[in-house]
Amino acid sequence: MDKNLFLKNMEEMIQIAKTNGNQIDHKELLDYFSDYELNEEAKKLLIASFVEAGIRVLGVDEAQIVAEEEAKEKADISEEEQGAIRFYEEELEQMDLPGEEEQKELIHAWLVEKGDGEAVIESFLPQILEIARTHTGKGVLFGDLVQEGNIGLLEAMAIYQGKDAEGFLAHAKSAVEDSILDAIAIQRGSDSVGEAMAIKANRLDDASTFLSKELGREPKIEELAKYLSMTEEEVKEVMKISLDALSVMEADIKQS
Questions:
Q1: 85, 183, 243, 247 - which has most CB atoms within 10 Å?
Q2: In terms of domains, do 146 and 230 share one?
Q3: Domain boundary at 73, 108, 129, which?
């Protein structure tokens, strides 16, 4: 199997599904990849990858497939990794962390009144650990996942320009997960394609929707780039891939 071609096909189908309301029929999906002669396990993994990218796969029990894949990933976690997770969880239990509403107040104070940024960073530790925990067993050590999540949070804090605590929460969580997924993609040797690109496309859509409401107009590329902690070139690249996928879909419709 040509891995690069397979990842490219996945990227194309994810973008096509996004133009169709973030959904695709499972028969259509499997037919598209029929030339690869996938076994049942590979088919489940393919469907799970689309679900994780935010695509609804019609005609299958998405929750069951994702749960099965997560169970396999957990089974692959070494005792050393399980020990690292327990260590962080025990540290968390000993910390006096704010609740959900108090965290929002801390964020608001930091955004509006230039409050304590360190307190905001500390308050995010439970979210970072939870996101890191969902991505264990994917080739990157748990401690490294936490570190990448912290880097994503710091980048989000450096870039965010708004004053809304809810908006920052959504932005920061996306930045944390994106940083972790980028690290996993790099480890797998598939950076800028497949999963990493799908996540960026999802974040771009979410950012465009949020900023449109905030600004009362369509956001500019530089505004999207600042909000997403991406370069303007990266934003343009993701936009181009989305447009290319739409062109593919329109061509398929005309041929049918």
A1: 183
A2: no
A3: 73
Rg (Cα) of the chain, in Å, rounded?
20
Count of domains forming the chain: 3
| Token output for 126 | 């439970």
For residue 76, the model assigns a pLDDT of 58
Residue type, 187: Q
Q: Of 187, 211, 231, which marks where a domain is finished?
A: 187
Residue type, 225: A
Task: Show the domain range for 178.
Answer: 76-187
Asked if residue 39 lies in contact with residue 30, where contact means CB atoms within 8 angstroms, the answer is: no
Specify whether 82 is located in the same domain as 176: yes
pLDDT digits (tens, 9 = 90+) for 170-208: 889 888 988 888 787 776 654 444 555 666 677 777 778
- Tell me, yes or no, whether 99 and 139 share the same domain: yes
DSSP 7-58: HHHHHHHHHHHHHTTSEEEHHHHHHHTGGG---HHHHHHHHHHHHHTT-EEE
Helix (H, G, I), strand (E, B) or coil at 89: helix
Contact 198, 9 (CB under 8 A): no
Instruction: Name 24's bridge partners.
Output: 57
Q: What pLDDT is attached to residue 124?
A: 92
Q: What pLDDT was estimated at residue 35? A: 83
- Per-residue model confidence (pLDDT) at position 256: 46
Name the stretches of the chain with pLDDT < 70.
Answer: 1-4, 62-78, 187-200, 228-230, 241-256
Residue with tokens 């964020």: 107
**Three-state SS at 96:** coil
Q: Which of 159, 169, 152 is nearest to 107 (CA)?
A: 169
